[in-house]
Amino acid sequence: MGKPSGGAFVGLDIGSQTIKAVEARGAGNGLQVSALGIENTPPGAVQGGVVTDPKALGAAIKALLGKNGIRASRSVSAATGAASVVVRVIEVPRMTPAELAETMKWEVERHIPFAANDVEMAYQPIDDPAAAADPNNPNMEVLLAVAQRDMVQAHIETLQAAGLNPVAVDVEPLAAGRALLNLNRAAGLDTRNVVVVNIGASNTDVAIFKDGTLRFPRSFPIAGDNFTRAIAEHLGLSMDVAEEEKRENATILLDLISGGAASDTGAGDFAVGGAAGGGRTPFDFSDVPMNTPFASTPSTPSMPAASPFDPSEASEIGAAPARGAFDLSEEPMIGMPAVSPAPPAAPVDDNPFAINNEPTVPAFGATVTPPPMVGANPPATVPVDDALSRRRREIFDALLPVLGEFAGEIRRSVDYFRSRYPTDSLDQIILCGGSARLSNLDQFLQSDLGVPTVVADPFAGMKVTSRQMSPERLAATAPAFAVAIGLATRDALLGSDKK
Asked: Which residues of 209-218 are buried (b: 16+ CB within 10 A; e: fewer)?
């Protein structure tokens, strides 16, 4: 990696539950994280991945930056929302850049669920030397990104309310790929076939990178909230308390799983105790009038990409070709009503993922008093290990059906890749997002899908400075920062690849 471009940038990952902020800057021939922080999103300020209260959200972001010593003003953030953002790889006949520019004006209408007359749209031909060299292949693939202009404008207003200078609005799947594949090039993943699974609150993004280039982005509505809801319903708890139970006591009990594969429907048929169960994105909107075609310069597989939405001129689309992607990591669950959280109680302790300041569930004590039993004299206490084991078994039983559906959805993406590229193997699955920390989830998916699976460490190989987080807390929360790091390093990676 060459020398990064100068200056510091703030990467903001704004979710429906939490806001993650990372300040990154060049350091010699590398990059360093000079400050970072995470706080709760104001209730109702983000709904369905879309900003609904720019003023309240802007104030919360400003407070987060001040609390954690983040002083940079240039920001890169991510646009989300299944109902207002679409990212897709499409196939069109092979054509010249001018022909493609004209075609995409009409092609976009076939791929979005909203009106095409008021959108920000960008596209980037995918550089595939093998396909280009095949005389029997008359088609080419194009990475398409579209967002409703009102959504982008609300996003920009939020950043301005926080006192930030928005440089670009990116998308999460590409930002996550940038952090996990491009930053740590010593691992060699920027030229491999990798599945990045970003588990948000209400949506999970699956982004498959072939030779380091995004080839298959997909989002499905099974994510952290589904796990929490399963615990709440099984144990009769509020969503807030169930969330804490998930964080403190949820673990996948691998030794109890006797069935290894979910059904073709994705519902899962696990049997447990008899229970069924680039730098820049290709979308840079700076200084190019709407409908101006992108340049056709081929992209290198290892080169990151520019953001789809550059707010320097909100009504325009940019032309710098580079890889980018939309991240739909925390969108609302399709077809299911939102669950209103219980009223906040006492403030939480040092939990960075606390929601609405709910109280931390008391840890199991040295003894637990069981309920009275009719006609018997029960022992006065139960050993803590037994009580904790029973609690974890109850939570696991609650999670198992959702785990089967979750694994089934990822399997669909993996099977698609294998059918599309039968001679290519998948090298690794990387889990990121808050719920990636679910104990043994990586081993569970590796066993089920047959692909080596790890939990992301986006800080690997980077110098990290934080006045607010201990090394232990930083390690525990690291998977949740993947998108924010990818956003913060967008410009630095672009600068390094140009040098």
From this structure: bbbbbbbbbb
